[in-house]
Amino acid sequence: AAEEGFDLDEVAGDLAEAGHGPLPVLAVVGRPNVGKSTLVNRIIGRREAVVEDRPGVTRDRVTYEAHWNGRRFKIVDTGGWEQDVLGIDASVAAQAEFAIEAADAVVFVVDATVGATDTDEAVVKLLRRAGKPVVLCANKVDGPSGEADAATLWSLGLGEPYAVSSLHGRGTGDLLDAILEALPEAPAQTFGDAIGGPRRVALIGRPNVGKSSLLNKVAGEERVVVNELAGTTRDPVDELIRLGGRTWKFVDTAGIRRRVHLAEGADYYASLRTAAALEKAEVAVILIDSSETLSVQDTRIIQMAIDAGRACVIAYNKWDRLDEERRYYLEREIEQDLVQVQWAPRVNVSASTGRHMEKLVPAIETALAGWETRVPTGRLNAFLGELVAAHPHPIRGGKQPRILFGTQAGTKPPRFVLFASGFLEAGYRRFIERRLREEFGFEGTPIQVSVRVRE
Ligand code: GDP
Ligand code: GDP
User: Fold this and answer.
1) pLDDT tens for residues 340-395?
2) Which mutation among 213, 218, 259, 326 tests ligand 2's pocket best, with the greatest number of atoms within 8 A of CB?
3) Does the model's ipTM exceed the 0.90 cut?
4) What backbone torsions phi and psi does residue 374 show, to the nearest 5 degrees?
5) What is the DSSP-derived secondary structure letter of residue 423?
6) Angle subtended at Cα 80 by Cα 205 and Cα 67, rounded to the nearest 5 degrees
7) Which residues bind GTP 1 (predicted)?
8) How far away, in angstroms, is 166 Cα from ligand 1 center?
9) 355 or 50, greater pLDDT
10) Under DSSP, is residue 433 helix (H, G, I), strand (E, B) or coil?
11) In whole angstroms, what is the distance from residue 6 CA to residue 90 CA?
12) pLDDT digits over 442-452, tens only?
């Protein structure tokens, strides 16, 4: 996006960010109305988005970035659960289950003015069994008189209840300190990466596209004995699989194998899982059922992978079920509805028959290579110079904005910052992105281009 002003600090931030892997993940769980969304808003320091009074509306966005005392982490907001469909107990239990599997630490929010309910006690049991660090937030303590209510929550056996008013901010500093203590410096998954361990793959796609079938197929006989791999932190929800001569970590596979039997309302749950898997992964293999018409859910999942900045491979599964007619329409769908990922390598596979399974690894490797591409500043500016000379920005209001200089601020995915003498129109920015792709490849990766305007 184009931004006003020209701020060197911000650019330095972009550059510093470049080397970062995935951030530790914090989940916020608790009954409806205890103030989870209010707390998340307070922590991320924004009022937008989270509190949304549209029951039953599936929110796409469930992960937010937060920072405190110079450390960054992700917050997963589990508050959007469709309570009316699932019933309160089921929804809270499902949140907790999700949090347990996908987060590095959990904030459990209780309404101190109400005290611990049976549902709260049930969640505590789940949380305790999981062994993930839990910080107890006694919320709605708006003044000193509420402290006594908060103290009664020691009875939950989760340690100190942090008395907080999410609404007014009271006590949130101490809570955040406790959260930082509970969160690992970096999630376990980055460890393998740091020592050149297995690349992390997320298998995503809407229910029934064939994720578990594909996982079973690729896992085959070759499941790796984990302890043999030095320095690999085993997360029970991940699986190490040997494919194409190297070991890959398929992340968050528990959610794929152990199907969650929630008839309705499962959409939101699936969306949380997708977000969590993307958070941990470097590359997303996005499965699409080629025998069915591309759905809104498919495109939403693709968009999630792009927004998460992951390398992407599109796998058209169930290819064995295609007939001539369907194939004809599929080609058109790909052209029209998949423009957002035209750059992603595509493989046409069948998890049932094993068709073209051998093409999966080369596609993943291509996408990862694009994701890690770095264009030297000199080359980038030579390219930009020629481009701008041949295709100047249209004159607007008597002025012609010029690109002065560009730099690649980061990789994984490639991120560019362009410095310009004026606002660059969206169409021109898209043109530049297109030309960057033509020139430098970037197959299988989203790229981000931001513009800083120097007045
Ligand atoms: P969620 O369903 O757990 O996400 O809860 P919300 O964040 O939507 O909050 C439910 C209600 O509690 C809203 O009316 C909030 O304004 C209110 N609330 C949240 N935190 C506090 C607080 O610290 N003090 C008071 N008095 N009200 C709060
Ligand atoms: P998931 O919900 O994405 O994990 O999907 P599953 O792996 O459970 O598959 C859903 C259904 O599609 C099952 O009945 C599978 O047998 C079937 N299926 C999966 N892959 C293929 C395929 O390549 N071809 C055909 N014909 N059926 C498939």
Assistant:
1) 899 999 999 999 999 999 999 999 999 999 999 999 888 899 999 999 999 999 99
2) 213
3) no
4) -125, 125
5) P
6) 90
7) 30-37, 77-81, 139-142
8) 7
9) 355
10) helix
11) 49
12) 999 999 998 88
> What is the pTM for the complete model shown?
0.62
**Gap between the Cα atoms of 244 and 361, Å rounded:** 6
Look-up of token digits 């006694």: 138
CA 150, distance to chain mean position in Å, is: 34
The residue behind tokens 């992951």 is: 310
DSSP code per residue over 64-117: EEEEETTEEEEEEE-TT--HHHH-HHHHHHHHHHHHHHH-SEEEEEEETTT---
Least confident of 247-261, 294-308, 418-432: 247-261
d(CA 112, CA 344): 49
- Please give the distance, rounded to the nearest whole angstrom, from the Cα atom of residue 200 to the centre of ligand 2: 23
Measured between its terminal Cα atoms, the distance across the chain in Å is: 16
Residue 370 and residue 436: Cα distance in Å, rounded?
A: 12
CA distance 282 to 292: 28
What's the pLDDT at 191?
34
Asked if residue 439 has its Cβ within 6 Å of ligand 1, the reply is no
Say what the pLDDT of residue 399 is. Answer: 87
Residue nearest to atom 22 of ligand 2 (CA): 318
What is residue 404's DSSP assignment?
E
pLDDT in tens, 271-320: 778 888 898 899 999 999 999 999 998 999 999 999 999 999 999 999 99
Identify the three-state secondary structure at position 248: strand
Query: In the structure, what pLDDT confidence band is assigned to residue 47 with cuts at 50, 70 and 90?
Result: very low
Nearest to 373 by CA among 278, 444, 279, 315: 444
pLDDT of residue 51: 41
* CA–centroid distance, residue 111 to ligand 1 (Å): 9
**pLDDT of 90 above 90:** no
Pocket test for ligand 1, best of 166, 168, 268 (most atoms within 8 A of CB): 166
Return the residue whose CA atom lies nearest to atom 6 of ligand 1: 35
The single-letter code of the amino acid at 189 is: Q
Residue 383's Cβ-side half-sphere holds a number of Cα atoms within 13 Å equal to: 19
Q: What's the CA-to-centroid distance between 33 and ligand 1, angstroms? A: 6
Q: 77: annotated binding-site residue?
A: yes
